[in-house]
Amino acid sequence: MNLFDLTGKTAVIIGGNSTLGGAMAVALGGHGADVAVVGRNAEKSEAVAKRIEEAGGKAKCFTADATKAEDLQKVLEDVLAWTGRCDILMNCPGMNSTTPFFELKMEEWDTIMEVNLKSVVLACQVFGKHMVDKGEGGSIINISSVSSEPPLSKVFTYSASKAAVNNVTKFLAREFAPARVRVNAIIPGFFPAEQNRKILSPERTESILRHTPMNRFGEAEELQGAAVYLASDKASSFVTGSLLRVDGGYGSMTI
């Protein structure tokens, strides 16, 4: 019995060329899925595709702006031409900013909301509709954040956008359930890539680790198990509308 076998499935990873998205894309490919790596940076996408192939999977890269419906529709058409299916959608795009609230300009607000929220809604409209109409079920996995509940200090717009992602996840879980399309979200803790670690002040790092019972940052590969679990219609067939924490205990910490 293999609850995590994704053989025969096609997974579309929006933002699959990012650090976290790439790690999860490799895991899905390594468990048998054909993986469409979608992003704006072709070089980074190709690097992820190579890692997927090294893990024994099959991958293809697609270039798209996740905030444009026509780009996503084209990706869907191209993916269907490639494998004939779309069973798994993972939404990984993300943009952050530490602009103080009173200094926040609406241009920045709109940009972050477009990348973090609008892209999720559009992808769920495009790929979710295909899954619902086809009637064979499917899995949508949105990437949220510990800043979604409660909001994290200094990242106002990011926190608001991720709180909305949680709401969208639960709403669509209810809407899509009759078609056996499951919609869940992963809430990662602090998984700073090397470039992000450099901008973390010692005080900020100390505060984060003090609030994380495991007393460390997460590694990208530690999201792989959650991704494969939620993608599998064997392992998580009765799981929808859930917000799965992978945060080293951050969400259970008080004083």
From TrEMBL:
EC number annotated for this UniProt entry: 1.-.-.-
Any one GO molecular-function label of the UniProt entry: oxidoreductase activity
Cross-referenced InterPro entries: NAD(P)-bd_dom_sf (IPR036291), Sc_DH/Rdtase_CS (IPR020904), SDR_fam (IPR002347)
Pfam families: adh_short_C2
Keywords associated with the record: Oxidoreductase
Coiled-coil residues: none
Keyword match Oxidoreductase: yes
First-level EC class: oxidoreductase
Family statement: Belongs to the short-chain dehydrogenases/reductases (SDR) family.
Protein name as it appears in the record: Oxidoreductase UxuB
